[in-house]
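Reply to dn_fold:

You asked what the input looked like. This is it:
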Amino acid sequence: MKKRISTALLFVAITILSACGGFDEESAAKESRASLVEFLNSHGEQEVLLEDSSDVQEVADIVSAEFEPYFTEQYMTAVQEAIIANDGVKSKFMETELFFLEEMYENLNDDPTVGFYNLYTVNSGQVDEENEIVTYELERTESGLGNSGGLVEMVEEDGDWKINSVQ
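and this is what came back:
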């Protein structure tokens, strides 16, 4: 009899603890959006990150140092690979993964600098409760060359909401 009661109490305790630790859509949407906005505000509007965009390894190193808190390991790997793959390419940052980078020219005769592009509107998020993902649409707020935005997927990694992919 004691064994049955103990088993029943253990089952009830596990059920209660499981319910408490579940995915909360409302807080996920709120926290992930705050993290994405924090990333976009982490540097000034079109702030220069690097004076010369020709050394892609240096660009990759700067991105790693500056944005590691905002990117999952998976996304950081994708970003690093996209940067390195653009060695020798004229317009280096046109890929969707690199939506936050921009080659900027003081004038057409100058070498381009690497800038942080953050002129986006964060549209409402879609919560995928089953996969614990929140996806936001970024919309470019000014016209021009470069990335038009995309769908930013946010996931929780190590207790923080981070960018996991961009499409």
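The domain at 24-166 is CATH 3.10.450 (Nuclear Transport Factor 2; Chain: A,).
Hope that clears it up.
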